[in-house]
Write a structure and sequence with these properties.
heterodimer; A: 633 residues; Cytochrome-c3 Hydrogenase, chain B; 3-stranded antiparallel sheet; 20 helices; globular; B: 353 residues; alpha/beta; Rossmann fold; Cytochrome-c3 Hydrogenase, Chain A, domain 2; 2 domains; two-stranded antiparallel ribbon; 7 strands; 39% helix; 10% strand
Chain lengths: 633, 353
């Protein structure tokens, strides 16, 4: 048995360490630990502050999935204060959210995950002519999903962003890589395990396509976020306000934040999102997936997704009056709310549990545990609901090594800065894969009357199953399936943005230009005490913020975030989180270069800044500095 | 190592296009046209500089901003202008392999590499609130800075401390100049900094082999020389006394000044007003939200965002504009001292309430 450490895990957000125990004879991973190795304390920092400011603080939880924590925070505060936002604000927030989904997933696949599958070294062996021919075949075979993707506007004359699948295009990228390798300055490609046998699993031509698109999409990705720059002023970290959005609309004024010209800029960017996912992302991932699954029988890394997944639902079609009161879940188009167990047995045998409104205030449903986390609870055998959460840091060091220089983590004690959230005491996976499994199960088992978004998702899954010639329960709960689900979700979000854009145009055309409900802007209109829940589906999975407001200030604030679910350490019952389960569900060829495990971890798109936060019941009093008066110079 | 001109040549770029590029970036860096020959000379002779980009406590928004740069495109910077040898976010390698590579670059290019730092070190619990390779980040930071030619503090975390250092700063996070004392540090604040400001700073250092001229607080003057208020496209509405009184009112639809709903443009030094974001596409004020002052020290603790800032006489008619400008210029000269005075006055203002 060999103990292998990978620290730092790169190509993620934040700081993560993994340790695996490998049976050297079989390559089977027998046990695995994942540890969040940073901690910032944002929830303590927002206490006693103005609830209208908190979106900006919590937004800084992550600059990669930038804006999603702002959205969860706005929803939590609006839920507490019973504020309903205007229609335009709902559509604009949805476009900003959808743009995040597309951008985050595209960058994840090409810039954080692709180098697990394709290698610049292998790309040098490719024949550019054969590569071009293959690229065209891939577009033909795997581009069939594009055919049922809706275009609600129908404004685009022809696709502007299209793969230049010619020998010349690929030859240029190959020349670039060759010079880079010959220069000896490999830069970001330096020091990786390029000699790992898994890089031989794809033909050189697929490697060249992958590397070319890696570089090409590095330039295109910036355009995917343009809607956030127009509506929120910048990116990362665009602006919002409690009660709606800040970008007022006027069709009569070029100084207006939103006018006809600005809307055209947004629309153009949305079409770029559509083309980037339809013509690059989907064909690329499906081509790689088909080879891995069908030629190499590579079904590793499903782990916890086979057992249990959880989601909250998103895309309110129209403004809602609250989340706690159940109205949010009545209005959403994307029904990923719920829990599904045992999907690997087939969709008919999977078990479904609904989650909506009041379930998020139920102290028995969502709880966090700290048995193996560097925090202290009065009774560590019990979990706490976010509204009752306590965090008292309790760093205990490693099993071997010193406090500041580790050798191995303590698997029997505390070993991570991440807490362990559980649903009814059970571990769950979150993320695009979870959402796709939940919607698919709900529709196929007839639990809901599907919306067009739900139907689109089912259609995507069925079409991919046909292309891969595998049933969903076989390909979905795997590392490859997790990566495909992310691509499908990006494509769905891009096309859904066209839908919101149409609704926004129609509403403005009907004479409504309101973007903010300011009735409860003044804190004197608020109740003495209020509690709220803010839900959304972040790119990496289900996200919830819980707020308690007292006397106009934040009294307690807590976030249960996607990477806390997926990257959690063990709980009192010894149940592993999703990262750990995925590693245990994997075999490695070269134990000291566990590329397969790294690939599995990357398929979750880990975000450690997101998962390492702090709540505290005993937070210090924070004096708020009022800025008033006049400077006399 | 290759020079820029060699890199361009092997890209098949003509001499004419190369010179055109040199002229463009000379302008981008805020230099006079007379500097073009020096830029060309620098590009013909300079090799690709190795860069180590390390991450402490942060949210990665600076890296995300950097890859959004349009002129120059981040891909050109990363692949042709610098040699990004270590980056938690973009490096292919992981674990011991990537850490060993960092050590190798430090040794091989001692005194010749640039260290870019995103985020900051927490000093609480012996630095174990931020751990890399089983060691505290603060140790990696010191070790990486020792042989660096210069250090870039990316963003408000590295420059000032930013969100995790806001009260009560549970991890004792500090800006990097609290632990690196003997190296030139270029502070590029902002949460995040504007993409083109980031690539502009890198371009300057790579091409001229020196750090850009800095102000008294260590920020490149070319990008942090003006208050957002001075270059804001809504300044004329401020001067005319035309204000948004409440979000989404008639003034908001007309794009009037946001000072009364809490804009910090008058006390924030950055290029949002003149360069804007996304290559000139927009900036927060253009989207109808006040500036929250994210490039300024301690901005999180400078009171609620939607409360109007003190110290700025509000004009009612245009004739007062000159006077406002004069006060602003005096304040700009004072830098940190003025900040201190302002805080004192704020306190006294509070007492008066």
């Amino acid at each position: 048995m060999k103990r292998v450490v990978v620290d730092p895990v790169t190509r993620i957000e934040g700081h993560l360490r993994i340790e695996i125990m490998v049976d050297e004879e079989t390559g089977q991973v027998k046990d695995a630990l994942s540890a969040g190795t940073m901690w910032r304390g944002i929830e303590l920092i927002v206490r006693n502050r103005d609830p209208r400011d908190v979106w900006a603080f919590t937004q800084r939880i992550c600059g990669v999935c930038t804006s999603i924590h702002a959205l969860a925070s706005l929803r939590a505060v609006e839920d507490a204060l019973e504020i309903t936002i205007p229609k335009n604000a709902n559509y604009i927030r949805n476009i900003m959210y959808g743009s995040l989904q597309v951008h985050d997933h595209v960058v994840h696949f090409y810039h954080l995950h692709a180098l697990d599958w394709v290698s610049p070294v292998e790309a040098l062996k490719a024949d550019p002519v054969a590569t071009a021919a293959l690229a065209n075949k891939i577009l033909e075979k795997y581009g069939v999903l594009n055919e049922f993707m809706p275009d609600f506007l129908g404004h685009r004359a022809y696709p502007k962003k299209f793969p230049k699948a010619t020998p010349g295009y690929f030859r240029e990228f190959q020349k670039k890589i060759k010079k880079l390798v010959e220069s000896g300055q490999l830069g970001i490609f330096a020091a990786h395990w390029w000699d790992h046998p898994d890089y031989q699993m794809l033909p050189p031509e697929v490697h060249l396509i992958g590397i070319a698109h890696y570089l090409n999409m590095l330039d295109v990705q910036r355009e995917l976020f343009i809607p956030q720059v127009v509506f929120g002023g910048k990116n990362p970290h665009p602006h919002y306000i409690v009660g709606g959005v800040n970008c007022s609309i006027s069709m009569d004024d070029m100084n207006a934040p939103v006018n006809a010209e600005r809307l055209a800029v947004v629309e153009d960017a949305i079409y770029t999102q559509v083309e980037s996912t339809d013509f690059f992302y989907i064909p690329d991932i499906l081509a790689i997936a088909d080879i891995y699954l069908n030629q190499h029988n590579w079904f590793y890394g499903g782990g916890l997704s086979k057992k249990r997944v959880i989601g909250y639902g998103d895309y309110p079609d129209e403004p809602y009056t609250g989340i706690k009161n159940g109205d949010y879940h009545k209005k959403i188009l994307w029904h990923s709310n719920g829990v599904v167990e045992d999907f690997y047995k087939g969709v008919e045998k999977a078990k479904f549990y609904n989650l909506e409104g009041k379930d998020f205030t139920d102290p028995e449903q969502i709880q966090e545990f700290v048995t193996h986390s560097w925090y202290k609870y009065p009774d560590e055998t019990k979990g706490l609901h976010p509204w009752d959460g306590i965090t008292e840091p309790n760093y205990t060091g490693p099993k071997e090594g010193t406090k500041t220089h580790w050798k191995y983590l303590d698997e029997n004690g505390k070993y991570s800065w991440i807490k362990a959230p559980r649903w009814r005491g059970k571990a769950c996976e979150v993320g695009p894969l979870a959402r796709y499994i939940i919607v698919y199960t709900k529709v196929k088992q007839g639990h809901i009357k599907p919306t067009w978004v739900d139907e689109l998702i089912v259609n995507q899954i069925d079409t991919v199953s046909k292309i891969l010639n595998l049933p969903p329960e076989k390909w979905l709960p795997t590392t490859v399936g997790r990566t495909i689900a992310r691509a499908l979700e990006a494509q769905m979000s891009a096309h859904t943005n066209l839908y919101w854009m149409k609704k926004l145009y129609d509403n403005i055309k009907a004479g409504d230009t309101s973007v903010a409900n300011m009735e409860k802007w003044d804190p004197s209109t608020w109740p003495k005490e209020a509690k709220g829940v803010g839900l959304t589906e972040a790119p990496r999975g289900a996200l919830g913020h819980w707020v308690i407001i007292k006397d106009g200030k934040v009294a307690n604030y807590q976030c249960v975030v996607p990477t806390t679910w997926n990257g959690s350490p063990k709980d009192p019952k010894g149940q592993h989180g999703a990262f750990e389960e995925s590693m245990i569900d994997t075999k490695v060829k070269v134990p000291e270069k566990p590329l397969e495990v790294l690939r599995g971890i990357h398929s979750f798109d880990p975000c450690l800044a997101c998962s390492t936060h702090l709540y505290n019941e005993k937070g210090e009093e924070i004096a708020s500095v009022r800025v008033q008066g006049v400077v006399h110079v | 190592m290759e020079t820029f001109w060699e890199v361009f040549k092997r890209h098949g770029v003509s001499r004419r296009d190369f010179l055109k590029f040199a002229t463009t970036i000379t302008g981008l860096m805020g230099l006079a046209p007379s500097m073009v020959p020096e830029v060309v000379r620098a590009m013909e002779t300079k090799p690709r500089v190795p860069v180590l980009w390390i991450h402490g406590l942060e949210c990665t928004c600076c890296s995300e901003s950097f890859i959004r740069s349009a002129t120059p495109l981040a891909s050109d910077v990363v692949l042709s202008m610098i040699s990004l040898e270590y980056d938690d976010t973009l490096s292919a390698a992981a674990g011991e392999a990537v850490e060993k590579h960092r050590e190798r670059i430090i040794k091989e290019y001692w005194g010749n590499y640039i260290l870019a730092v995103e985020g900051n070190p927490p000093l609480g619990e012996d630095g174990m609130y931020c751990i890399i390779g089983g060691r505290p980040f603060v140790e990696i930071l010191k070790e990486s800075a020792e042989g660096a030619k210069a250090v870039i503090a990316w963003g408000s975390c590295a420059s000032w401390g930013c969100v995790q250092a806001a009260k009560p700063n549970p991890t004792t996070a500090v800006p990097i100049d609290k632990v690196i004392k003997d190296k030139p540090i270029i502070k590029v604040p902002g949460c995040p900094p504007i993409a083109e400001v980031m690539t502009g700073v890198i371009m300057y250092m790579v091409l001229f082999d020196r750090i850009p001229p800095l102000d008294s607080q260590g920020r490149p003057k070319m990008f942090y020389g003006n208050r957002i208020h001075d270059t804001c496209y809504r300044r004329s509405f401020f001067n005319a006394g035309q204000f948004v009184e409440q979000f989404d009112d008639e003034g908001a639809k007309k794009g009037w000044c946001l000072y009364k709903v809490g804009c910090r443009g008058p006390t924030t030094y950055n290029s949002c007003g003149n360069m804007r974001w996304y290559n000139g596409l927009s900036y927060p004020i253009q989207s109808g939200h006040g500036c929250i002052g994210c490039a300024e020290n301690n901005f999180w603790d400078n009171g609620p965002f939607y409360e109007r800032i003190g110290g700025i006489p509000v004009p009612g008619i245009e004739s007062k504009a000159d006077k406002v400008g004069a006060i602003a210029a005096a304040a700009a000269a004072g830098g940190a001292i003025i900040h201190g005075i302002a805080s004192k006055i704020r306190k006294s203002g509070e007492k008066e309430e």
